[in-house]
């Protein structure tokens, strides 16, 4: 099942370290793609049929947001499919309770304005990793002729009719690029988004929109050119693999001294992370849609997080765990989310030697980590804390794992299938 019945912030993971991970796991689709593909159903005159929809908690929440907007949504967690059919005239006022629980609900803004000329959304929730402003989304919609009304806790956007525009983004924001491109598919004329984000998940969204009838040039490049069309129609689409999930398991394998094959991954989406893992002494074998990760003698590396194709911020906490086990001093520079280093305090309590100065962190290793109680501050910090537990002495408890549920399908069962000693407690000890 999708873990939608798990509003259990009290759940925690209990991890006992010391086991090298070995075996094969097969992954599903990307969280950051599936949620946006679901939002794109608002643009569709017909049905969006998705496969490889990951069994993560954000999926049913997104389904609730869309149902509140008049989309008929059927989820089949066992088959990992979703079927979404928007009404001819979707509602434009999203239900606040679901919206505030999930960052990706902001992705409804662009398609709603594109389809109905109007949207009202409560300001979104999600991870607490920095300010997470939406000014670029709003300024871009204004450039296309919309009027933006910002009120405390909500935003309303009204457009008599969107027109094409030249939109240079200050920063290649993932969310802003997605919203603007979805709105632009229904604008009159051509929209050019400059300095666009080009994450694989955005490319996935672009390609699905093209399959629905959109006209988009420059997919995968920093300049997207979108010519508006009158209608977008039904599509059957397979969600692209989750490079962050794959990277997390790759690091888990390497940090525990293991040997793991990860299937349904596109190694080309992970070019820079794989360069860094190899530089850190890990043996990486690439297949067409698989990776084999074998541990080696870990050496320090420097990483700088940047928008794709840079090193992903969503892998930075996990990599930091790995670097605590590497010989020498590594430097991590975080350029995307200002609060991402909040995980460092958790790692330090396990014995990690990490010094932070602004957006740089120096990690000296190797050190023996010791089990303790951690807060899973966000989806990636919760996963990283679990990896730290896999190499720590004694027992590590990771709290607030509802964050991990938002981004990792079957996290505990998958780790256990590779030989990890980890369990979910107290509500779900059999997981
Ligand atoms: C998405 C991903 C998230 C990933 C991030 C960066 C989803 C659901 N989440 O988040 O997992 O970590 O991309 O790869 O896909 N910013 C502004 N103004 C804006 C928009 C963004 O200042 O209008 C800033 C943000 O505060 C942040 C940075 O730009 O510091 C990156 O944000 P963005 O690329 O938009 O990330 P998200 O779409 O929120």
Describe this structure in words.
There is one protein chain. This protein is an alpha+beta fold. It folds into two domains: 3-21 and 274-281 and 297-429, UDP-n-acetylglucosamine1-carboxyvinyl-transferase, Chain (Alpha-beta prism), CATH 3.65.10.10; 31-238, UDP-n-acetylglucosamine1-carboxyvinyl-transferase, Chain. The protein has helices spanning 31-39, 58-68, 96-99, 109-116, 135-143, 174-184, 200-211, 243-255, 271-279, 316-323, 342-349, 379-391, 402-407, 411-417, and strands at residues 12-16, 22-26, 44-51, 71-76, 81-86, 118-122, 147-151, 154-158, 166-168, 190-194, 215-217, 223-227, 232-238, 259-263, 283-286, 290-294, 303-304, 328-333, 353-357, 360-365, 373-375, 395-399, 421-425. Strands 21-22-1-23 form a four-stranded mixed beta sheet, with helices on one face. Strands 2-14-16-15 form a four-stranded mixed beta sheet, with helices on one face. Helix 1 packs parallel to helix 2 (58-68), helix 4 runs parallel beside helix 6 and helix 10 packs parallel to helix 12. The protein is globular, with a radius of gyration of 21 Å. It starts with 11 loop residues before the first strand and ends in a 6-residue tail after the last strand. The structure holds uridine-diphosphate-N-acetylglucosamine (UD1). Uridine-diphosphate-N-acetylglucosamine is lined by residues 32, 35, 103-104, 130-137, 171, 173-176, 197, 313-314, 336-337. Residues 32, 35, 103-104, 130-137, 171, 173-176, 197, 313-314, 336-337 line the site of uridine-diphosphate-N-acetylglucosamine.
């Amino acid at each position: 099942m999708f873990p939608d019945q798990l509003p259990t912030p009290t759940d925690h993971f209990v991890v006992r370290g010391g086991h090298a991970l070995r075996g094969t796991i097969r992954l599903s689709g990307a969280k950051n793609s599936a949620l946006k593909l679901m939002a794109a159903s608002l643009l569709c005159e017909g049905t969006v049929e998705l496969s490889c929809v990951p069994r993560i908690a954000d999926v049913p929440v997104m389904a609730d947001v869309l149902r509140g907007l008049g989309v008929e949504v059927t989820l089949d967690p066992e088959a990992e499919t979703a079927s979404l059919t928007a009404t001819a005239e979707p509602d434009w006022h999203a239900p606040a309770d679901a919206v505030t629980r999930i960052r990706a609900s902001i992705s409804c803004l662009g398609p709603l304005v594109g389809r109905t000329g109007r949207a009202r959304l409560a300001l979104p929730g999600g991870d607490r990793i920095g300010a997470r402003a939406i000014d670029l989304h709003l300024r871009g919609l204004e450039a296309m002729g919309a009027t933006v009304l910002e009120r405390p806790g909500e935003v309303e956007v009204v457009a008599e009719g969107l027109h094409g525009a030249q939109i240079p983004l200050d920063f290649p924001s993932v969310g802003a690029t997605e919203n603007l491109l979805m709105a632009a598919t229904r604008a009159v004329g051509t929209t050019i988004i400059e300095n666009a984000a080009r994450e694989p998940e955005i490319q996935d969204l672009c390609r699905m929109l093209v399959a629905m009838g959109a006209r988009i040039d420059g997919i995968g490049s920093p300049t997207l050119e979108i010519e508006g069309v009158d209608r977008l129609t039904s599509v059957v689409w397979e969600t692209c693999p989750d490079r962050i999930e794959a990277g997390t398991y790759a690091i888990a394998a390497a940090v525990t001294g293991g040997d793991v094959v990860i299937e349904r991954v596109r190694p080309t989406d992970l070019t820079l992370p794989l360069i860094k893992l190899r530089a850190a002494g890990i043996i990486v074998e690439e297949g067409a849609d698989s990776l084999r990760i074998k541990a080696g003698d870990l050496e320090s590396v420097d990483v700088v997080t940047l928008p794709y194709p840079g090193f992903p911020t969503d892998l930075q906490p996990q990599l930091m765990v790995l670097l605590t086990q590497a010989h020498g001093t590594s430097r991590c520079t975080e350029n995307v989310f200002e609060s991402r280093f909040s995980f460092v305090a958790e790692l330090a309590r396990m014995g990690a030697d990490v010094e932070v100065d602004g957006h740089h962190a120096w990690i000296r290793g190797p050190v023996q980590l010791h089990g303790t109680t951690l807060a899973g501050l966000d989806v990636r910090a919760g996963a990283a804390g679990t990896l730290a537990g896999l190499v720590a002495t004694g027992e590590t408890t990771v709290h607030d794992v509802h964050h991990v549920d938002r981004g990792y399908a079957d996290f505990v069962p998958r780790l256990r299938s590779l030989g990890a000693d980890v369990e979910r407690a107290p509500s779900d000890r059999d997981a």
